[in-house]
Design brief:
The protein is α+β, with helices and mostly antiparallel strands and about 110 residues long. The longest helix has 22 residues. About 20% of the residues are buried. The mean pLDDT is about 95.
Length: about 110
Amino acid sequence: NKLKSKTGDLNKFIKAIENQLKQGRKQVSIIINSSASQVPTYQFKNNEELAHLRAENLKYDLINHFQNKKLDKQIIIVIENFAVDGPEYINDPSNHKKYKPYQLVSAKTE
C-alpha cells in the first residue's frame, strides 16, 4: 500500500506543490482521502483499518518528502476521510473492475 513519490501522478502532484512554494506561495494544505472496498482483508484487522493505513502512509510519505526538502514548515497535511465503500462483496474475488474503484488514496491541495 505504499506509493512512490519519485514517479507517476504523486511525483507530479509533489512537483506542482514545490513549484507553487518556489513562486512565493506561503503555505499549502494537503487534504487526504482514502477508501477500501468491501472485499474482505486478511492482512488487516478490517477494511476500515486498511483505508486508514492508506491515508496514514501517504501522510507519512509526504511529511518525509517535504522535511527532506526543508519545506515542511509550509505544508499542512490533513486526513479528511477514510472509509469502506463500494458494492457488497459477493464472493467474486476475480471481479477487479467491480471493486478496484473503491481501493484508493487521494490527495488535493487547498
